[in-house]
Amino acid sequence: MEVVEVIDRRVEEELDDEDVEETLGERFVGLGEMFPDWLRRGIVTSANLTWSLATNVGSFAKSTLWIVSTSAMIMVVPYAIEKERSDMEKSQMAQQRQLLLGPSAAVSAAKANQLGPY
Amino acid sequence: MAQSEPASSMAAGQPPPPPPLLTNVVAQNNNPGSYDELHRKCKDVFPMCFEGAKAMLQKGLSSHFQISHTVSISPMNTGYRFGATYVGTKQVGPQESFPVLLGDTDVNGNTSATLIHQFGERWRCKVQSQVQGGKFAAWQGTGEYRGRMSTLGLTVANPDIISESGIVVGQYLRRVLPQLDLGAELVYQYGKQVPGGHFSMLSYAARYNGANFIATGTISGSSALHLCYYHKQTQNLSFGVEWELSRRGGQEESVATFGYQIEMPEDGVTLRASADTNWTVGGVFEKRLHQNMPFTLALSGMLNHVKAVGKFGIGLIVG
Fold it and tell me: Does residue A63 lie in a domain region?
């Protein structure tokens, strides 16, 4: 109680920084007042804008990724897997031929299959 | 699917030989084909998605007679269907023989049947009928004259003398330039259920046959527009784009679809996939399970991103 009275009296006269009791947070907020009003408003607006932009971009990226990946699973992946399997089978055949019949056979086999040497 | 391609054109890195990719489109005697099949080349690229499970057994009893058994299990229709096909001895083209008789029936007796026959060189007729629940549900007959440069067709559907109703369709398609076909169709419907007693609609169609693409368009009255573009990139890869615009009762509907078909003939693999502006993607993947055995596995997937609905199907085709 006494302290409050003291502060009140002081306020009436003049504020002295060292005697005002405030938390660190309050001090920090108070520091902002050294910038002009328009600058502070600008910073707040731009911070809000950045945040909403980031969340929008994030959710957009999320749904895009989801749509693209699920669509690809239906539209592309089955063929890609099959293609991979077929290519591998062909190269294995070529390799087998090379082991059995020597390099020249492998080259001719590869030509027949239109693959590289391996 | 069973095209046996020489392995040389399968090269991944090499450009395919400059091909007459679309030879089959330009029919031998410049006949533009039937009006109904204008958009077919493009439509064939798009997948026929199915839901649930189905098994199909096709068996050729002789070179002219084939039967098929189909068992399907899906939310839409579960049941068994039996089909029979007879192809006659009159050979017209490399792939065409007449008469053709097709029949299809399920356990409840719902039957559909089709008879196609060609008289002489130019006249072709087609009769289709459908029996549902012991009654004739629908039938239609088509007569077609395939001239040197044009096709003339007349279709009568569901004519009913007693209640005076029916649909008459006249079609004309003509090859104007070697690449350009133009056509028109008149649909006339009459009957008590039609507002005003009569209804008719005139449609115009055009098709351009390019070296490796086909562009088709149909305008029906002032209510519908249908554009298709089919592009054959290589022997095994083709694209299709379709745009459908319709206006009915002040409500406009516009759907664009992109689809493609890619094949590996030597492995018996076909993938058809499509994506449209309703956020629906679909794909049907078919694979021959063994080179020497007639088993084909089909996988179907369809996904709508807006409704978050997916439909998947699996099928086995024997024969």
Answer: yes
